Amino acid sequence: MDQPKFSRVLLKLSGETLAGEKDFGIKPEAISTFSLEIAEVVRTGLELVLVIGGGNIFRGMAASAKGMDRAQGDYIGMLATVMNALAVQDALEKLDVHTRVMSAITMREVAEPYIRRRALRHLEKGRVVICAAGTGNPYFTTDTAAALRAAELRTKAILKATKVDGIYDKDPAKFKDARLFKRLTYIDVLSKRLKVMDSTAISLAMDNNLPIVVFNLFEPGNIKKVVTGQDVGTLVTGGE
Question: Is residue 127 part of a domain?
Fold first, then answer.
């Protein structure tokens, strides 16, 4: 395959991508499919950080809306991301891709504690670093965790994998006339209140000049196309 456009990227996977066409749980077949693509791009020498959500198992904000304490719900959601991280690790290791799960909440029996310098060393050695448990703090989404880790680990871009082709002006699952944006600025996303990532994540990416590419994970070959710089999905930049 073509050589990657970026030397190091962060791939943000929503929890829903692990559920496949289902609304809940982990579907091994779905994980195996995108893991094959991840393995292919990693073998080109691309250094890869993964951040995985937990919405396929538990959503802290949804539970909070139904009466659960928000912080407690967020901690449960963080634990859900650890389960997802372990599932993805298993799939990648079966493809001979060396990985390390690093958790922002200490649980040494299943994951290393997240230590920035150690994570950088893993990347330099060609290992995929799977960051779990968000930021380790309630009230922060895994999108914000992705932007934070991308800045900390000096990645060149944030790739946000979703179930749709990019950023739309409204929900394409509900509105047939939804319009796909190909290029946006960070300010566009914030001012139009486009629900692709929360405002904290977008602001953090903007402050660190990290381009964001939002693309459809379920379109075969899209991971390869994105990392080699092909025109896929929606690109969010400072607009320069």
Answer: yes
